[in-house]
Amino acid sequence: MTALHLNPLFARLESAERVLVAGAGGGFDVYAGLPLALSLRHQGKEVHLANLAFSSIEGLPLDSWLAPDVAVVTPDSAPHQTYFPERTLAQWLALHHLPSTVHALARVGVQPLRAAYRALVEHYAIDAVVLVDGGTDILMRGDESGLGTPEEDLTSVAALAGLEVPERLVASIGFGVDTYHGVSHGLVLENIAALERDGAYLGAFSVPRATREGAAFLDAVAHARSRTPEFPSIVNGSIAAAVEGSFGDVQFTSRTRGSELFVNPLMGIYFVFELEGVARRCLYLDRIEDTHLIRQVGSRIEAFRDELPRQRPARRIPH
Q: Which CATH architecture has domain 15-229+266-307?
């Protein structure tokens, strides 16, 4: 049991020496873990970054691969690719004279992704993993009316649930952003309450822009937007807008034209959980355990939902 004045996540990681901060859902998810990674580095810990990659990593040179399905991305990787969040982050890190390697994990099923994580854990002697979701759909257990985009998030959870690492945590930031993908945040709150009852919810904390980590996050998101203007991150753009104090229907990209966004202060808060608890609550995790391809994950989730007698309807947050 920790004290109220201590940050719940960093209290759990106090004895960790080598931490892997990994984006769970692909795209720019690793950026959602950047404030945590920077804070851990400021505390003197060795921190490594990884991300489930939506970018094309198959064509990277042979010497870029740490293991099957794990590519080592540097600021100079694949200069011809326009969309490459891992390289863009590596370039930002280099600009700030920080270790500038980001590991790109192939978008595969549970079994090969677990092997990829195992290779990372063993290579760097990792003693703690923080799996970060930009959004809240990683907390959906499977019977909700809308799941968002769960395939990559829960593949990552399942992969890490089968590994022996002293500390495994899930951090979710961006509360409200998944409304864009049909998630009911009333159900998100219900799920967090259930995780609290299970003893798996570790608490929450914000990322103020007045902190050096908050300011660095804003700078990294702005840098990514300038480098990839055709593919701005809706999630991290929304979180950054919230951290800056924006509110309501803040439109910063044409990708959201026609949708009403609800940028709000809760988007800048990390909700932290034990990964094992999140894994236990997922109703279909056993069904995706033996998958090798990401499309198998999607079809298994779809089959599970087809068998449900009913789905939990969306819950309105009173106002």
A: 3-Layer(aba) Sandwich (3.40)
